[in-house]
Amino acid sequence: MAADRSGERCSGGGLDVCWVSDLGAARENNEDACLALPSEGLLAVSDGMGGERAGEVASALVVQWLPGLVAEHVGRLENPPQHDVESALQEAVVALNHRLRIECSVFGNANKMGATVALVLVRGRSAHVGHMGDSRVYLFRDGKLERLTRDHSVASMLLERRAITEEQAECHPMKGQLARYVGMGGEGRADVRTIELRGGDWLLLCTDGLTESLSDETIQDLLNKHHQLDRACQALLSAARSRDNITVLIAQRQGE
Q1: Whether 121 contacts 190, CB under 8 Å
Q2: How far apart, in whole angstroms, are the C-alpha atoms of residue 130 and residue 152?
Q3: 130 backbone dihedrals φ, ψ, rounded to 5°
Q4: Is 2 a residue whose pLDDT tops 60?
Q5: Is the pLDDT of residue 44 over 80?
Q6: Mind listing the pLDDT tens digit for each residue in 124-146?
Q7: How far, rounded to the nearest angstrom, does the alpha carbon of residue 72 sit from its chain's CA centroid?
Q8: N or C, which end of the chain is more exposed by having fewer CB within 10 Å?
Q9: Please, are residues 37 and 63 in contact by the beta-carbon 8 Å criterion?
Q10: Do 223 and 3 contact (CB within 8 A), yes or no?
Q11: How confident is the prediction for the chain on average, in pLDDT?
Q12: pLDDT one-digit tens code per residue, 234-245
């Protein structure tokens, strides 16, 4: 888990990675967690939820268990096609959801404890993106920011069904209520997609402490002003001024 207002970096597997995390203005503990294993091509952020430090425990368990589950489900495949990797990632997240749900029930917190997950698994030029909840993954390429995930919130679901407008979604009372998250009842499936990476591409993973404060346009502007990973992470963190925990992870693909 990333330390508060600290920056960390690591490299491997053709990726340079930097991440920062902060309590925010109104939190006593950091319920965000961050995972960076570039040599394995695995990146993730998680935002915990639940009272009495349950969220902090949930997000820590997500990033603790995720590498083993990805290795178990994806690692068994030899030269797999894209669809097989996506299916294996789905299986890994289903297993993650089930495991956290059991852990919650052991502590009597089955309906209170959970976490988001936003992950990227890089294999060669392919980046397999999976998520549950409202933590996000973006691609930053040639100065343009593209969101690769959609929020699994009740308000976003209503917006997709055109039951509310974008303006109403921004201030909807159920904006922060998640329709999908790790630890929920049922199968708990993630959305998974695959993109092709180019040399110099940036992958941005973040919790909602960032995106509640900054628009996509503002994030894009800041990334265009700061060309070094550590400075870009700190610039986003400083600009957000969120009441919530904020975690930002940026990975750059090396080569061409």
Answers
A1: no
A2: 12
A3: -135, 150
A4: no
A5: yes
A6: 899 999 999 999 999 999 999 99
A7: 21
A8: C
A9: no
A10: no
A11: 87
A12: 999 999 976 678
Instruction: Reply yes or no on whether the pLDDT at 4 is more than 80.
Output: no
Burial of 121 (0-12, 13-18, 19+ CB in 10 A): buried
Task: Give 87: exposed, middle or buried? Use CB within 10 Å, 0-12, 13-18, 19+.
Answer: middle
Please name the amino acid found at residue 163.
A
Question: Contact, 35 vs 53, CB < 8 A?
Answer: no
Separation of alpha carbons 109 and 241, rounded Å = 31
Structural domain boundaries in the chain: 6-251
Q: Determine if the pTM surpasses 0.85.
A: yes
Q: How much of the chain, in percent, has pLDDT values that exceed 70?
A: 82
Match 């960076």 to its residue by tokens: 36
Write out the CATH class of domain 6-251: alpha beta
Strands 117-123 and 126-132: antiparallel
Cα 208 from Cα 142, distance rounded (Å): 24
User: Which segments of the chain does DSSP mark as H helices, in order?
Assistant: 54-73, 82-106, 154-160, 166-170, 208-211, 216-225, 229-240
- Beta carbons within 10 angstroms of residue 231's beta carbon: 14
**Encoded tokens for 25:** 């203005």
Kindly give, in sequence order, each residue whose CB lies less than 8 Å from that of residue 19, ignoring residues fewer than 6 positions away: 2, 7, 8, 9, 34, 36, 233, 247, 248, 249, 250
Category of 41 on φ-ψ map: left (φ > 0), alpha (ψ -120 to 50) or beta: left
Q: Give the model's pLDDT for residue 244.
A: 77
Tokens describing residue 138: 């973006």
